[in-house]
Write a structure and sequence with these properties.
With 888 residues, the protein is α/β, with parallel strands linked by helices. The protein is 42% helix and 10% strand. Bound molecules: thiamine diphosphate.
Length: 888
Amino acid sequence: MKPDDLARLSPIASWRLPEADADPQETREWLDALDAVINESSPERATFLLQKLVQHARRRRVQLPTVANTPYINTIGLAEQPPYQGNLEIESRLMALVRWNALAMVVRANRAAGELGGHIASYASAADLFEVGFNHFFRAGQGGDLVYLQPHSAPGVYSRAFLEGRLTAEQLDNYRRETSGKGLSSYPHPWLMPDFWQFPTGSMGLGPLFAIYQARFMRYLEHRGLLATHGRKVWAFVGDGEMDEPESLAGLSIAAREGLDNLVFVVNCNLQRLDGPVRGNGSIIQELEGLYAGAGWNVIKLLWGSDWDPLLARDTQGLLLRAFHETVDGEFQQLAATTGSFNREHFFAKYPELQQLVAHLSDDDIDRLRRGGHDPVKIFAAYWHAVRHRGQPTVILAKTKKGYGMGSAGQGRMTTHQQKKLDVEQLREFRDRFSLSLTDEQVEDCEFVRPPADSPEMKYLHARRDKLGGYLPVRQRSSAPLPTPKAEEFAKFALEAAGKDMSTTMAFVRMVGALLKEPTLGPRIVPIIADEARTFGMADLFRQIGIYAPFGQLYEPEDREQVSYYKEAVSGQILEEGITEAGAIASWVAAATSYSAHGFAMLPFFIYYSMFGFQRVGDAIWAAADSRSRGFLLGATAGRTTLAGEGLQHQDGTSHLIASTVPNCRAWDPCFAYELAVIVEDGMRRMLGSQEDVFYYVTVMNENYAQPSLPANARDGILHGLYLVRPSAKGAARVRLLGSGTILREVLAAAELLENDYGVGADVYSVTSFTELRREAMAIERSRRLGSACGASWIEQLLPANGTPIVAASDYVSALPDLIRPWLRDHYVVLGTDGFGRSDTRAALRRFFEVDRQAIAVAALAAVDPAGANAASGKFGVDASLAPPWTR
Ligand SMILES: Cc1ncc(C[n+]2csc(CCOP(=O)(O)OP(=O)(O)O)c2C)c(N)n1
């Protein structure tokens, strides 16, 4: 590393050298003094003095190196607090209205149908945090900020949109009633509200993870010279309970390592989750501070509202601070759930001096002492500092009360998360608590209220948003279409393979290599890998397009002399994520939704061990689908018997089955390179050209075999999911064989066996997608059932009822070929790889799972004539005495 490189490093790097010394003589004196203590007293004495000094320095808010914890007070002192740049009075009236309409929406929904559910308490705690953001910080539009909102607070976001005139009362009345098409979704779901919600956060942990990789992806776009994202922020609102999810923590270190100062997390520390306290016997805020600071984040604790400032100023003995430290979260929760007098007796009575400190306050005054996350002035100060901080991501740990303002109905109550019905008395209390000018009737009816357009509140609301670029959240459905190349242009080698040996993984890598050279499309491609590039033969891309590294390459790579050396670069195109499928899929989602979030389409290809996709990060893929992602997922070294040696944890027999459950995922299991080429061509055209909200899952294998050329007229069938690849050599077939992926080759060999050894003619079909066949057949069957005109499904056309049995074999569980059973009128036998994988050669594994050519031939003979099959199974050594593979 060269000295100049130091400046380019993220300032959080712990081994970074200190800044130049401004006063060496003074430094010397301090060090000498310390030496004297060590020498003349003891090292223990030196430790004591240093601890005292550090403690003192922290209280004076002197910047110190990353440490686990700081005192339980606001990070931003009064002196650093900027003046509030808004009209607090109007904002508080608006705040009350947003709170009211959110509450009314949930209560009305549950009056109408108790089963609908909904949450009040989460938003009640987050409301001020959101509103200060909406009024002063969140910039809208394509050049604006991206905001990931806490999911259970959706009612508050709808309520604000109602005030803004973007949602109607009818829509609010259809909260959680979506089937009519007029309703509002429970949580942020772009699939369900494609013009409104941008980021799905309903599954805890995915929001924070996706937000981090979004912030990083924005940097990637900028560093690659594709899109200016400078100055834009990603905001993520996260629950303190949500921080328990491993995914919430998964990206913390990358965010700090890459110095993502375009990222602000706000953890809503209401100290409660669903069942009870997050850390009843501890302090979630102190714990999270240690975690984030340790990972290298800038931590802002936002604990106490302005009302506490005079108390803290008069607390010369530090007893208030001591009492804070002596109070665990379970107690803080109880203090939230109780009255001012209870707080006086149980908190301030800890020390006579503290009692004295609040002697001038009435019980109501004590009740009104706000936590930091409920004081717009303190929130504003925290956000103000967060957006100005450089070199690190910032987390704001905001202390709030769950169910704030819900009084006896919920504030701080164990059960508050589930509270959705308030009686009239409780509603009146709420009205009075927030000084809402509503009549008793309006309260009883839970009427939605919106002041007239020319009222000061409405004018203020619109003016604020106008200043910040418009309303939010708003989702853009599409971006400018991109021309996509024909397979002939990027995969001629595959279309005209003429028997060349190749695996489909190799073919894929070659195709990507060619696509990267396309003038328009090439730069938009985002190859993503989770430490498996060498496994998939992609190492050549390292040098060709470089690995994205925001600080470039500060070292001479060990393999610098190699043609394809490990090249990291600021403008690198590959996202090499390290061993994190969760992080890689988050990057993939950011790229796959770039058309919407940034109005700039990108095309990500994430290639991974197929077992570690749907099985490992299936919920993230589900959220990707909800996000209307467009891109390719490549399940590589796929198949239970094709990935030979890796064994039980690696061999995938299920991903296609799970893929079939994701509605906008088109899943493909091609055997031949030309099939892959046609599929990739089609996917690009649909996603980038036609702007369809689909993504493709394609399995590719590492088995080398002779690749035929594209047969004439096969394209249509490949994309429908089924086509005849080898007609019977014996005239009219007596059996029809279906095969997928590499097992198609066993099926082709079985056809030879059947014809040569048994004189049984076999037509062989390649099934590129059982899922697509099923979906089309289901749609046609439905039309038929409902009496609308329709033709025959592709399955019915290609595999009509004619008395000829059908045998299908797959490298996935037999439930996959079973997906098309309802539309086959003839005897249908399915062979799959049910059970646990294990290590062995491909041939041995295929025998074990009974999907090799002999086992397929036996199954076909049994379907044609059971008597003949017995002899064949003896001849082929398919052992009937063994227990079924899925029990072994
Ligand atoms: C992955 C996942 N697991 C469980 C849930 C169910 N759930 C919804 S909200 C919630 C508690 C959230 O607590 P917290 O994050 O502290 O937020 P709060 O509502 O208190 O603001 C749980 C467990 C979920 N939505 N996602």
